[in-house]
Specification:
The complex is a heterodimer of chains A (118) and B (647).
Chain A lengths: L2 E5 L3 H13 L3 E5 L2 H11 L3 E5 L7 H10 L8 E5 L4 H10 L3 E4 L4 H9 L2
Parallel strand pairs in A: 1-2, 1-3, 3-4, 4-5
Chain B lengths: L1 H14 L3 H18 L9 H4 L12 H13 L12 H38 L10 E4 L4 H11 L6 E5 L3 H10 L9 E5 L5 H6 L7 E4 L12 H14 L7 E6 L5 H7 L4 E3 H14 L3 H8 L5 E7 L8 H7 L4 E10 L5 E7 L12 E7 L29 E5 L5 H11 L4 E7 L2 H15 L4 H6 E7 L18 E4 L10 H19 L5 E5 L14 E6 H13 L3 H9 L4 E6 L13 H10 L2 E8 L6 E4 L14 E7 L4
Parallel strand pairs in B: 1-2, 1-4, 2-3, 4-5, 5-6, 11-12, 11-14, 12-13, 14-15, 15-16
Antiparallel strand pairs in B: 7-10, 8-9, 8-10, 17-20, 18-19, 18-20
Helix pairs in contact in B: 2-4, 2-5, 4-5, 6-18, 11-14
Classes of the chains: A alpha/beta (118), B alpha/beta (647).
Chain lengths: 118, 647
């Protein structure tokens, strides 16, 4: 089963998403900001990263760009998650290097399809 | 030698409470023995026996001498009964009576002194108490009276024990002035160190039902002491065992100390500056929220409860919301196992409608206090698919803040967090330039965590001193999106609420001349000052310490509520919202409660109530009765929980 890293600062959002993914049988690890997200990507080597964009310390765009610039981390797929669901936000996330994009609150069926696509 | 003996007597008298009595007894024995020597001066001679007070019923020996001497020591009146006795006997009787008088006086003095000490201890509040299941309030500040008032509104029979550094007389006077004096039978006011393990034992911390730690202090002048609060938390934590069922909640004033406080204790913490600033900013962003908050956090009307889902495993969250027929479901909660083996309660508000409930889930509901939750498993909701709706983030770009308050820095940071664009905050107070410079330093420190904050906020000083200027005519207030009037405790000779009321009068004056003002959010320290502003036409929201007290009390009785409150008033995540009927294409349509729910779920929103009408007379109804859910019109608003999606 896939290992998923959730990078999310809002406690309720990460609790709910991790519970739903755990119940679907995924292995889940949580980071609370962009810097911790990058650290856990190195330590944990997840199969997919679900990256919130508006994060403290290091925001999701910066963390995604840094991960994609890192030769060890660049192959890990990153799905960007944001509540700002305009086309411009999607473009900005994809430009930062995200492999896919989804809006919050998540539609689980659609998110699972995106996770399974990697 | 004599000095050494004196010192020994002094030492024993001051260190042993029983010694004075034993010493008096010893002296009494000496005096009685001395009196018995009158035997040798003819106590039982024929001449002496003529006197009324001398008897030899037991043969005129040791016992009769003892009795005669004892009588004179204890009863000075016995002296007169020796009339006619030999002169030697009368002298002995006189000396015995005089020494007896001195000894009896000493004994009475000791007893009176001891009684006085006991009464004094009770008055000063340094006595021990023997209670179980009581509410303990550690520390004392302005929130105390309102906290107790709200506690008694819950119709509880529990006793309230207040332990603080303040004098009990002072606390009692404040309570009486605040109208909680008549309930004093249930309130015990004690004084002592709230950080002392021995003192906390004395008030039964481990046997209490709830402990609320208030920050001692009075605002800027005496700066509140979070250090004491954190120390108290650590001491309490060491007293509680895993089996203890005590709910502890602490008030932390400065948000920067929250991290340390969290290390010191696992108890929920309520940070006053964060709470006040977040609430005020939410009220400024969304006029009308204050009304909903006061209903939602009112201890008397609304209660929060958990409903177990054992029989609901696999049921969709949306259906469960309809199945609970007399309460409003607002989220789910479960116990999460952490990596270190410990457990933690997790609460999530407004989960996705298609979330299928697990066996260990509990539904979080708001209901009328003390009502039993009714459940109809046959009800099902028709979920709809709708495109996501995006809201315009409320555009607060230019803010005017009157007065300097301990919460000012937190309010400015919160404004920054809530704004997606550049924000200008004008601070109008005495020594504005100095205060703004210190605020900027503070925000630079905060920005180690939120870098974007520094770039989005500009703070501008504006010198405004109520001691010099009594007019706002020269200020152009029309350009601001919002005005905050904060409680200023920086001047010892001026009451903060009086300054606030004065600024409100000046603003009212401007409004009369200009006819328009931006939304005004007011912070009050004393809830009674609300009455002064009752007739003001310009105030949008009033936030007082009553609000913080209500939250402290709710969290003390239900610790899981802490995460709910902090989520509801913070930026991002799940927020509260007002929705017009045309948001759901519901305007002009005949709809019942389940129809509204269904439309709301289609856009991931959860209805918790509605507001009937608008303006100052609007009425907020939370947890509405399904059977009498009214037909709403264009002036009404639905109150929802939503993951806000901003453009």
């Amino acid at each position: 089963m896939k290992k998923i890293l959730i990078v999310e600062d809002n406690e309720m959002n990460r609790d709910m998403l991790s519970r739903r993914l755990l119940r679907k049988g995924y292995e889940v690890k949580i980071a609370v900001d962009g810097a911790e997200g990058l650290l856990f990507m190195k330590e944990y080597q997840p199969d997919v990263v679900l990256m919130d964009m508006g994060l403290p310390v290091k925001d999701g765009w910066t963390a995604t760009a840094e991960a994609k610039a890192d030769p060890i981390l660049r192959s890990i797929p990153i799905i960007a998650l944001t509540a700002h669901a305009l086309e411009a936000d999607k473009v900005r996330a994809l430009e930062a290097g995200a492999d896919d994009f989804d809006t919050k609150p998540v539609n689980l069926t659609s998110l699972l399809e995106k996770i399974e696509a990697f | 030698m004599i000095n050494k003996f004196r010192y020994l007597i002094f030492l024993t008298l001051t260190t042993n409470s029983l010694f004075p009595y034993l010493f008096l007894l010893f002296l009494m024995c000496l005096v009685i023995s001395f009196g018995m020597l009158s035997y040798y001066s003819g106590l039982f001679s024929a001449e002496a026996l003529r006197a009324e007070g001398i008897d030899n019923l037991l043969g005129g020996g040791f016992i009769d001498s003892f009795w005669w001497s004892l009588k004179h020591v204890l009863d000075p009146g016995a002296l007169s009964e020796n009339y006619g006795a030999p002169i030697g006997v009368i002298i002995f009787a006189l000396l015995n009576s005089m020494m007896g008088l001195a000894l009896t006086g000493g004994l009475i003095g000791l007893i009176v002194n001891s009684l006085q000490n006991t009464l004094e201890s009770a008055k000063q509040g340094i006595s021990s108490i023997d209670e179980e299941g009581h509410l303990i309030i550690l520390g004392w500040n302005r929130k105390g009276p309102s906290l107790i008032k709200q506690f008694f509104l819950l119709n509880t029979t529990q006793r309230v024990v207040i332990l603080s550094g303040s004098s009990p007389q002072q606390v009692k006077i404040i309570l009486k002035a605040e109208g909680v004096g008549q309930k004093n039978k249930k309130i015990l006011v004690l004084t002592g160190l709230t950080t002392s393990a021995a003192v906390l034992d004395r008030i039964g911390v481990s046997k209490a039902a709830h402990i609320i730690i208030l920050a001692e202090g009075q605002g800027l002048k005496d700066s509140y002491s979070d250090v004491n609060t954190i120390n108290s938390l650590m001491v309490i934590e060491s007293k509680l065992t895993a089996q203890s069922k005590v709910h502890v909640v602490a008030e932390i004033v400065n948000s920067e100390r929250l991290g340390i406080a969290n290390i010191a204790s696992s108890s929920p913490l309520v940070c006053t500056s964060l709470l006040m600033s977040r609430t005020m900013v939410q009220c400024a962003r969304n006029p009308g929220y204050a009304r909903v908050y006061s209903k939602l956090f009112s201890s008397a009307e609304i209660g929060f409860d958990l409903f177990s889902c054992n029989s609901l495993e696999g049921t969709l969250f949306a259906d469960a919301c309809l199945m609970i027929t007399n309460a409003t479901v607002i989220g789910v909660s479960w116990i999460k196992k952490l990596d270190d083996g410990s457990t933690k309660r997790v609460t999530v508000l407004n989960p996705e409608p298609d979330y299928d409930l697990a066996e260990d889930d509990q539904l979080v509901v708001i209901n009328s206090r003390n009502s039993t939750i009714l459940f109809d498993p046959g009800l099902k909701i028709a979920l709809q698919e709708k495109p996501r709706q995006f809201l315009d983030r409320s555009k607060i770009r230019d803010v005017l803040v009157f007065s300097s308050s301990p919460n000012l820095s937190a309010i400015i940071s919160e404004l920054g967090l809530n704004s997606s664009s550049q924000i200008i905050v004008t601070v109008a107070c005495r020594n504005a330039a100095e205060i703004v410079s210190s605020l900027n330093e503070n925000i630079v420190l905060n920005c180690e965590v939120r870098r974007s904050l520094l770039e989005s906020i500009t703070i501008v000083p504006m010198e405004f001193d109520l001691n010099r200027r009594w007019s706002l005519e020269h200020f152009d207030l029309s350009g601001y999106d919002s005005i905050f009037v904060l409680a200023d405790e920086s001047e010892s000779n001026v009451d903060a609420d009086s300054s606030t009321a004065m600024i409100m009068l000046l603003l009212e004056d401007v409004y009369r001349k200009v006819g328009v003002l931006p939304p005004i959010v007011v912070e009050l320290l004393d809830s009674k000052t609300k009455d002064v502003l009752k007739h003001s036409t310009i105030v949008d929201s009033v936030i007082s310490t009553e609000f913080v007290s209500a939250i402290l009390l709710q969290v003390a009785t239900n610790p899981f509520l802490e995460s709910i409150y902090s989520e509801l008033i913070s930026a991002g995540g799940i927020e509260m919202g007002f929705r017009q009927l045309d948001n759901y294409n519901a305007l002009g349509k005949s709809m019942d409660y389940s129809d509204y729910l269904s439309h709301a779920f289609a856009v991931n929103e959860l209805i918790i109530g509605y507001q009937k009408g608008d303006g100052p007379d609007a009425e907020v109804i939370l947890n509405p009765d399904r059977s009498t859910f009214p037909s709403l019109n264009s002036r009404d608003r639905l109150i929802v929980l939503a993951q806000q999606l901003y453009t």
